Amino acid sequence: MYHDVSHLLSRLINGPLPLRQIYFASASGPAPELAYQVDFPRLEIVLEGELTDMSITAPLIPCDVLYVPAGG
Question: What is the per-residue pLDDT across 60-72, written as a single tens digit (0 to 9) for each?
């Protein structure tokens, strides 16, 4: 399945679609059993739909950003 998200990214970077909220993942507690941890920080940007994550209290909606530190 192929989804072209270039138009969404272009609107986010160049245009009328500003970032809404920026959340920071907490590092409390061990990672879930099947979680894949990486040694670099990352940004998770919600372009469509919702994202629910154990490290934040509210679901992320379009234009929200989750910053996950290295090792997270």
Answer: 998 899 888 887 7
Which string of DSSP letters, residue by residue, matches 10-41?
HHHHHSS-----EEE----SPPPTT----SS-
What's the pTM value of the predicted model, to 2 decimals? 0.71
Pick from 69, 65, 67: nearest CA to 46: 65
Q: Is 43 helix (H, G, I), strand (E, B) or coil?
A: strand
- For the beta sheet containing 42-45, the strands, ordered from the edge strand earlier in sequence to the opposite edge, are 22-24, 65-68, 42-45
Dihedral angle of Cα 11, 12, 13, 16, to the nearest 10 degrees:
60
- Classify residue 48 by its DSSP letter: S
